[in-house]
Amino acid sequence: MTSSEAPREPQNVDPAELAKFTSRADDWWDPTGPFATLHAINPLRLNWIGEHAALHGQEVLDVGCGAGILTEAMALRGARVTGIDAGAEHLEIARAHAVESELEIAYHHTTAEAFAEHHAGRFAVVTCMEMLEHVPEPESALAALSRLVAPGGHLFLSTINRTPRAFVEAIVGAEYLLRLLPTGTHEYARFIRPSELAARLRAGGLEIRDLTGLTYSPITREYRLTPSVAVNYLLHAQRPDPGGAD
């Protein structure tokens, strides 16, 4: 495992948003703690990624990796994984947990923009889950994410749609009524419509391959994928490879 340089200014980081997660870094790997939702949805998002792209033996980058829940899951599938995050506290936990899990993962304390300066076009798979709604300039992050994808490579994103239903379910329901997330986790104004996301990715030279929703049933207490993208959704995009098949 390797460490890296601290993020350099200017950075696309909101200290208040980052503090929401770094303040709970020690609880990241508790499946019943404040990040229980991430543990619950991880198999769904991992399988969804695996349905669209090979992971075994591939160079994979997890952006906004936190303490490594998805990062480790992809490494267990045989990927050569790098994880980056703006939270130093997250990465301390991530490195320690990777050692316990006997996994070789390179973790770097940096942002997508800074990392893309030296690693553009390197990764066969780039993931960025539940991060875009927490950065001040998602457009900047999306441009950097697009640059990191190799020709023929894949980008996988998840975020929350900006709809009245999303406000009711993702904020009022998930944070205040069902207590699935700590209160104050999300701000409605930061949510991103799929059309906005897709337009930015196309501007970065990527093609949209799949768009699917993620929903929670308070009756069964289970998450599942759904055709509706009115609230949480996942998007798969790919960079065309001029020298070969997609």
From TrEMBL:
Report whether S-adenosyl-L-methionine shows up as a keyword of the record: yes
Q: Which GO terms describe its molecular function?
A: 2-polyprenyl-6-hydroxyphenol methylase activity; 3-demethylubiquinol 3-O-methyltransferase activity; polyprenyldihydroxybenzoate methyltransferase activity
| Organism domain of life | Bacteria
Q: Which UniProt keywords apply?
A: Methyltransferase, S-adenosyl-L-methionine, Transferase, Ubiquinone biosynthesis
Write out the residues that bind S-adenosyl-L-methionine.
Answer: R45, G64, D85, M129
Kindly state which reaction or reactions the protein catalyses. Answer: a 3-(all-trans-polyprenyl)benzene-1,2-diol + S-adenosyl-L-methionine = a 2-methoxy-6-(all-trans-polyprenyl)phenol + S-adenosyl-L-homocysteine + H(+); a 3-demethylubiquinol + S-adenosyl-L-methionine = a ubiquinol + S-adenosyl-L-homocysteine + H(+)
One Pfam family recorded for the sequence = Methyltransf_23
Q: What class of enzyme is it?
A: transferase
What pathway annotation does it carry?
A: Cofactor biosynthesis; ubiquinone biosynthesis
Cross-referenced InterPro entries, in alphabetical order? SAM-dependent_MTases_sf, UbiG_MeTrfase
SUPFAM superfamilies per UniProt: S-adenosyl-L-methionine-dependent methyltransferases (SSF53335)
- EC number from the UniProt entry: 2.1.1.222, 2.1.1.64
Q: Which GO terms describe its biological process?
A: methylation
The function of this protein is: O-methyltransferase that catalyzes the 2 O-methylation steps in the ubiquinone biosynthetic pathway.
- NCBIfam families cross-referenced by the UniProt entry: UbiG
Q: Which protein family is named in the record?
A: Belongs to the methyltransferase superfamily. UbiG/COQ3 family.
The name this protein goes by in its record: Ubiquinone biosynthesis O-methyltransferase
Name of the encoding gene: ubiG
